[in-house]
Amino acid sequence: MRHVLASASPRRKAILETLGLTFEVVVSEVDEPALVARSTERAPDALASTLALAKARDVAAREQGFVLGADTIVVVDGAILNKPADDAEAASMLGRLSGRWHDVITGVALVWESQTECLSVTTRVRFRELSVDRIQRYVATGEGRDKAGSYAVQGIGSGLVTQIEGSWSNVVGLPAAETVDLLERAGALTEWP
After folding, report:
1. Parallel, antiparallel or unpaired: strands 66-76 and 101-112
2. Nearest-10 Cα torsion for 174, 13, 98, 52
3. Catalytic site residue 71?
4. Full-model pTM
5. Which of 5, 128, 137, 183 could disulfide-link to 189, CB 3.0 to 4.6 Å?
6. So what's the pLDDT on residue 35?
């Protein structure tokens, strides 16, 4: 069967390729902000899984095979930080994360035939203290514009992070070990590596 990634994220595709897995990319047409607004899920891990499943189901309605969806959110003080709408919101998010711990939660969903399986993975991340000037300089790089929490741990943003507890690849956008386990349980991977 085909393996399809229901995500436009080049980071998720790169993680799968690093694992030696080949997935076709078919971008989901799910309106994430509208889905979040309509969702009754308030627990961040359940919300991340709901978003991932919606993306996977959307693509699975058009494509055959094992369809993998994912969604990553950042949570600090119970508030969910999605992708910033603009640079001002990005700077505000980074200011909230400065010198503090936060959670990065990725929901992962696999849809095949008439079956589904979902999981969520949480990684704790601590930021260094950030001056207003440093925040503005980082925002000006544009690196965090399309990322939950407004930073990229795999890029320049790695210099903002002092500690990680849990899966590093989860912070990038896809928990590698847990995704392999999910694919193996579903029969999407029979021999890995």
Report:
1. antiparallel
2. -50
3. yes
4. 0.92
5. 183
6. 77
CATH fold of 3-186 reads Maf protein (3.90.950)
Q: Do the Cβ atoms of 121 and 48 come closer than 8 Å?
A: no
- Helices and strands (DSSP H and E) totals, the chain: 7, 7
Which residues are CB-contacts of 189 (< 8 A; sequence separation ≥ 6)?
A: 21, 180, 183
- Exposed / middle / buried, residue 188 (Cβ in 10 Å: 0-12, 13-18, 19+): buried
Among 45, 58, 71, 103, the one annotated catalytic: 71
CA distance to 51, 59, 112, 164, per residue, from 29 (Å): 12, 8, 18, 32
Q: How far apart are CA 110 and CA 6, in angstroms?
A: 10
Nearest to 74 by CA among 104, 44, 38, 54: 104
Does the structure show a pLDDT above 90 at 40?
Answer: no
Q: Report how far apart, in Å, the C-alpha atoms of 91 and of each of 12, 124, 136, 137 are.
A: 25, 21, 7, 10
Q: Using the 8-state DSSP alphabet, how is residue 26 labeled? A: -
Token code pair at residue 40: 């009754």
Domain positions in the chain are 3-186
Above 80 in pLDDT, residue 67? Answer: yes
Report which DSSP code applies to 166.
Answer: S
